[in-house]
Amino acid sequence: MTTALRPRLRPAAALLGVTLSFALVGCSSQSVGTGSAAAGPSAGASAGSASTSASADAGKFASIIPSGDIVAASKDLVAKSLAGSEGFTPPSTGPKAQRPGAKIAFVAGDLANGGHNATAKAVSEAAGVMGWTVSVYDGKGSAQGNADAMNQAITAKPAAIILGGLDPTEQAPAIKQATEGGIPVVGWHAGVLTGPGNGMVTNVSTDPLKVAQRAAAYVVADSDGKAGVAIFTDGQYELAVTKARAMEAYIKACTTCSVLSFEDSPIATADQRMPGLVSNLLQQNGAKLTYLMAINGNYFGGAARALEDAGKPKDGPPKSVAAGDGDAAEMQRIRTSNHQAATVAEPITLQGWQLVDEVNRALAGEKPSGFVAAPGLITKANVPSGDVFDPPSGFRDIYKKVWGK
């Protein structure tokens, strides 16, 4: 991805061109896509504006949409992704371990988010090899909480700060304060783009368009091009909207598939909101609704309860497919066919070790590695036995050798 979408304020029906406040409050859960029989567009946005928004977005995602027979191409992409072993080997060169005994701060956007929590644990694991200690601060899913957590981290005067899932635009003043105080800031899923930017030394993430592509390709392939889809996102987050719109564009490129609804509902309240949302969608769409797609697996705990109450079979339809993160709850749902068929998982443990390596490079005065790990498509056929996707690329041994440990 070469350009970042601007942050947004309104629910997704009026997403384009609007600046976002990342506070997890006041976000209504309304249908914002075309073709939905659910609630109409959010206040201040017309159905026409929603359609225009989706059409404008479609061209932005052309790079992830195959040419020719999209069903055949999707099946090929899924097969390669499930069998894939590439994209998980980090660079084998870099600086030796810096600053024995250093204290590192990990500021999580919301530790209730499985991805944020697992990443904090992975960072602590890798930091232990370095002889560092990690203090974890929890933003608890709100803008004020994020600001408070960042202030606490800066006050502790750590050797470096890792920004775990926070928006760097929202935290720009704190990032500036940290860097001017000699504290380098490294991001994890901090914005859309990977690499340096927004005052950060670098941002560690997978390519969100590839994540969205794998999720959508699975749906097209698994349905043999006949999917009826509802997509769930959180309009408060730039990254979430990017992935959701990319999935929407891919599904719409399959002319025999349909996007039945595009829903904007906060991640922080997904567990409470999803039962009602899914129940309404089942009533409105009946058998046409065959897939639920979301930008994060957090949506599917509540969805599973609604599907269970509606008497839907655990292995679907509807089948639930997530475009991130691949946490323990998702793995268990996939493993047991409990109303989730697939996820596109972050290699979270690998990314935790990479974050420590990027901090080490910053402390050594060296440039970031430039490494971008691949995402992993996970289904029941390849679901790991553990809590997270931990690719067997030997990355721990590679990093230990680089660090001289």
3D architecture notes:
The structure is a single chain. The protein is an alpha/beta fold and 405 residues long. 38% of the residues lie in helices and 14% in strands. The strands form two sheets. The chain has a seven-stranded mixed β-sheet with strand order 1-8-7-9-10-11-12, with helices on both faces. Strands 3-2-4-5-6 form a five-stranded parallel β-sheet. β2, α3 (114-130) and β3 form a beta-alpha-beta unit. α1 packs across α7, α2 crosses α6 and α6 runs parallel beside α7 (238-253). The longest helix is centred in the N-terminal third of the chain and has 17 residues, at 114-130. The chain starts with 29 loop residues before the first strand and ends with a helix. Residues 1-54 have low confidence and may be disordered.
Which descriptors apply to this entry?
405 residues, alpha/beta, five-stranded parallel β-sheet, 12 helices, globular, disordered N terminus
Summarize the topology.
Layout: E1 30-31, H1 47-58, H2 70-83, E2 103-108, H3 114-130, E3 133-138, H4 143-155, E4 160-164, H5 172-180, E5 185-188, E6 202-204, H6 208-222, E7 228-233, H7 238-253, E8 258-264, H8 270-285, E9 291-294, H9 300-309, E10 319-322, H10 328-335, E11 342-345, H11 348-363, E12 376-379, H12 395-403
Parallel strand pairs: 2-3, 2-4, 4-5, 5-6, 7-8, 7-9, 9-10, 10-11
Antiparallel strand pairs: 1-8, 11-12
